[in-house]
Amino acid sequence: MSGLTFDAGGLIALDRGDRRVLALVARAAQRGARLTVPATALAQVVRQPARQARVARLIRQAGTDLVALDGPDATATGLLLAARDTSDIVDAHVVVCAQRAGQAVLTSDPDDLRRLDPRLQVVIV
Predict the structure, then answer these.
(1) 3-class DSSP state for residue 122?
(2) Cβ proximity of 34 and 63 under 8 Å
(3) More exposed terminus of the chain, fewer Cβ within 10 Å: N or C?
């Protein structure tokens, strides 16, 4: 595993100070592993940026990639949704980002993600 991709549940757990998530982020930093935050998942979570210091710190650190939903990712996301006959753009974008990075997804809801990719590695928080 080359790092972790966050879905909204993973970001919420981080924001709430979940010790396991904090430890995973610290371990990734120590190992030089990349962390991926799809911008779509970030949009689901950000409500009061001034009070969400942990999330803000995560997206600012050098080892974090904040991934926009650009044209190529939008196409890949749409194709994945069509192939799995589902409609959650955020979940599909998270899966696309995790697949490309070869990362497990930090999530509180693995079922929707596994519906999109049954082989996807998940870390449940």
Answers:
(1) strand
(2) yes
(3) N
Contact between 13 and 38 under an 8 Å Cβ cutoff? The reply is: no
Q: How many domains does the chain have?
A: 1
- Full residue range of the structural domain in which residue 31 is found: 3-124
CATH code of 66's domain: 3.40.50.1010
Q: Cα separation of 122 and 109, whole Å?
A: 9
Return the DSSP state at 61: S
Residue 39's contacts (CB-CB under 8 Å, 6 or more residues apart) are 66, 67, 68, 69
pLDDT of 33-66, one tens digit each? 999 999 999 999 999 999 999 999 999 999 999 9
> Is 90:60 a contact under the CB 8 Å cutoff?
no
Q: Where are the beta strands (DSSP E) in 1-125?
A: 3-6, 34-38, 64-67, 104-107, 122-124
pLDDT for 2: 85
User: Which residues, 6 or more positions from 96, have their beta carbon under 8 angstroms from its beta carbon?
Assistant: 73, 76, 77, 80
